[in-house]
Amino acid sequence: MTQSQIRPRRSVLYTPAANDRALSKIGRLSCDVIVIDLEDSVAPSEKAAARQKLATIFSARPQHVEMAVRINALSGTWGADDLAAAISCKPDAILLPKVKTPHDILEAGKLLDRADKDMKIALWAMIETPKGLLNSATIAELGCDPASRLTCFVAGTNDLAKETGVTLADDRRYFLPWLMQMVLAARAGGLDLIDGVYNDFYDVEGFARECRQAANMGFDGKSLIHPAQIEAANIAFAPSAEALVEARAIVDIFARSENQKKGVVALNGRMVERLHLAQAKKCLAKATAVNRK
Ligand SMILES: CC(C)(COP(=O)(O)OP(=O)(O)OC[C@H]1O[C@@H](n2cnc3c(N)ncnc32)[C@H](O)[C@@H]1OP(=O)(O)O)[C@@H](O)C(=O)NCCC(=O)NCCSC(=O)C[C@H](O)C(=O)O
Ligand SMILES: [Mg+2]
């Protein structure tokens, strides 16, 4: 991945399309992505009105963030109208909820292909049902084909907890195998991966802890529900000062004339190989992309 292709997705904030006060804030927020939500945060009686607002929201869209729209499932009552409305706003991505099989992505892709011929709109998939999780590897494989438009998985931990009866309590200990399954599937398909939401938005410490946990697990960012969560996510998913020092040291040591043809060197008593050099360059590129924001 080149530096210009890296788009930080540390903080992915849902804003309900039905909430005018919240919508009026989005131009001033420092999150990386805003997801205008037509799904669970919008009551059935408000679905049509919320959908109609999309055009106005996107006519004044902030340019410093990626903008996505989460539609209702295409299998339900509102999905097809949501998708048509979302496409006409040209968001960066359309987030499909409750994706269960590769077919769900291919079906949305076909509809997009007719309207978005220059392939500007990506598809993101929520993994939040038992079936979707079981099929996550085959769904993610679509990411290997750019024609599928699939570029990102988003964990839907609330729905998974609801569908399975498994608790998110105790630092998500019972969820960890499933979250790691998503990480593995996403990486095999070359996808980005966003962790689920933390519902208790006044618990700043607990939220920061969960962000650090997700960053250590390999997630690229966190789904957010409140502006108060943006800062902690931006910190947790950016390369740390220590990681940058180490990355620079690895780049420097391989740049020395005596090491230019070496596959492995020692750095401060530790083995460093060229795969670590690749990781270090990625870390530095990510920091550059974050600093550009
Ligand atoms: C959770 C909330 C309903 C809380 O709202 P509120 O009581 O208004 O909070 P505050 O008074 O503390 O808000 C302070 C100001 O910030 C603005 N605000 C709040 N939330 C947002 C937001 N998401 N985006 C932009 N701006 C926001 C308020 O308007 C206040 O400003 P002001 O009015 O001028 O004082 C609310 O935060 C909320 O609705 N959050 C988003 C909920 C949502 O989108 N849910 C769906 C996505 S999560 C999900 O679906 C889970 C997933 O699918 C899964 O399965 O896991
Ligand atoms: Mg959900």
Please describe the topology of this protein.
Elements lengths: L10 E6 L3 H4 L9 E5 L9 H13 L6 E5 L8 H10 L4 E4 L5 H14 L6 E6 L2 H5 L1 H6 L8 E6 L1 H8 L4 H4 L3 H13 L3 E4 L8 H14 L3 E4 L5 H7 L4 H15 L8 E4 L2 E4 H19 L1
Parallel strand pairs: 1-2, 1-8, 2-3, 3-4, 4-5, 5-6, 6-7, 7-8
Antiparallel strand pairs: 9-10
Helix pairs in contact: 2-3, 12-13
Bound molecules: ligand LIB3CWND and magnesium ion.
Ligand LIB3CWND binds next to strand 1, helix 1 and helix 7.
Task: Please outline what is shown here.
The chain has 13 helices and ten strands. It has helices at 20-23, 47-59, 79-88, 102-115, 130-134, 136-141, 157-164, 169-172, 176-188, 204-217, 230-236, 241-255, 274-292, and strands at 11-16, 33-37, 66-70, 93-96, 122-127, 150-155, 192-195, 221-224, 264-267, 270-273.
Strand line-up of the largest beta sheet? 1-2-3-4-5-6-7-8
Q: Could you say how many structural domains there are in total?
A: 2
User: At the fourth CATH level, what is the homologous superfamily of the largest domain?
Assistant: Phosphoenolpyruvate-binding domains
Q: What class would the helix/strand composition place it in? A: alpha/beta
Q: Order of SSEs, N→C? A: EHEHEHEHEHHEHHHEHEHHEEH
Q: Give Rg in angstroms.
A: 20 Å
Strand tally, please? 10
Report the major sheet: 8 strands, parallel, barrel
Percentage beta strand: 15-25%
CATH architecture of the largest domain: Alpha-Beta Barrel
Low-confidence stretches: none
**Ligands bound to this protein structure:** ligand LIB3CWND, magnesium ion
CATH structural fold name of the largest domain = TIM Barrel
Cofactor: Mg(2+)
Family: Belongs to the HpcH/HpaI aldolase family.
GO molecular function, one term: lyase activity
Keywords: Lyase, Magnesium, Metal-binding
